[in-house]
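User: I've been trying to design a sequence by hand for this structure and keep getting stuck. Would you show me what you'd pick, starting by listing the structure so we're on the same page?

Assistant: Good idea, let's start from the same input. This is the structure you sent:
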């Protein structure tokens, strides 16, 4: 009928977790307003190994990174006050400033206006 073998211990069976998970959600802080938020709510800016400052939408580029929240004002201030340059330990040159301001302008579209004006949110096609 059955063999005399012991029931094998199943290797590395993942433990099912229910309810509140103790797992730590990575939090990031906006370098300007110091708001903390889950990583996805912030956008990474990276100084690449080539010394270029780029908006890192993937959050995975190599280089020194700093996070900014989705408030356009923070992006403007990051450039104007030099906060971002300090965070990245580099100088935000004109080209980088332009890149960042452009990003800030795109964010402004998504910012909830105070006046109750209805705005059209851009459609994201890359999803
Ligand atoms: Zn911020």
């Amino acid at each position: 009928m059955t063999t005399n073998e012991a029931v094998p211990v199943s290797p590395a069976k993942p433990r099912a977790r229910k309810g509140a998970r103790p797992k730590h959600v990575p939090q990031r802080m906006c370098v300007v307003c110091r708001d903390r938020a889950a990583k996805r709510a912030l956008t990474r800016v990276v100084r690449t190994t080539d010394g270029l400052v780029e908006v890192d939408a993937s959050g995975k580029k190599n280089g020194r990174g700093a996070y900014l929240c989705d408030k356009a004002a923070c992006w403007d201030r990051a450039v104007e006050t030099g906060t971002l340059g300090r965070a990245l330990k580099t100088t935000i040159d004109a080209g980088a400033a332009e890149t960042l301001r452009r990003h800030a302008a795109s964010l402004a579209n998504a910012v909830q206006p105070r006046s109750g004006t209805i705005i059209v949110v851009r459609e994201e096609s890359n999803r």
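That's my pick for every position. To get oriented when you compare it with your attempt: The domain at 27-108 is CATH 3.30.1230.10 (Hypothetical Cytosolic Protein; Chain: A;). The first strand starts at residue 27 and ends at 29.
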